[in-house]
Amino acid sequence: MEALQAFVLGGAAQSSLILAGVIAYVVKVPSKVVGGLAGFGAGALVSAVAFDLIPESEVIAHWETALWLLVGAGVFIVADHIVEAKFGGDGESGPLGIVVGSVVDGVPESIIFGIQIASGQVLSAAFLGAVWVSNIPQALAPSAELAESGWKSAKTAMMWTMVVVACAVTALMGYLVGTALGADGGRAAALAAGGLLAMLTDSLMPYAFKKGGSMAGLWTVVGFALALGST
To answer: Considering the chain, what percentage of its residues have pLDDT values greater than 90?
Structure first.
């Protein structure tokens, strides 16, 4: 039952990819709004790392937490490098690159849900909301480009649905990893935190600044503050 819960929550958290993909065919969202949404999501995710994942890792020694943080960051960086080398950054070599890149970005987020369920932790509504919001800008821009290149909305929606399903499977894998690592989920939480921090630095925060300019910093703080207030 818990494994199924991880699968369902992992998909639900990423479901905004489908919504944003369809919205791109109906409404042209200003770049500043896209950047603001990315900044808001980034701030809330930083809060989740600081107040959800790191406290969960306190059941293990600090040196071990540091080690698993580095492992998590390494896993993300290597996977991201492989994707960019094979398909090109920002989906430049077509829809497949966009799909795979989005899956890589979603892995640290999705695995956290599985880890939290495996460790018996109460899932944070703030974190779930942050992931959901942060995915919107990630899907808007490439979906708009696909629309301009002639893709039908149904085809784009199907593409993002595949990403959502892949992330749901990743959440299930996170549950299995969290169960295998043990230590009340401490190691798995640290690993997920490292991967998430690397993703924020390499992907979401630079994207927020690129689209939103200096106001992205304000929205990042707003996202952090609201997530903190809900803990």
So the answer is: 12
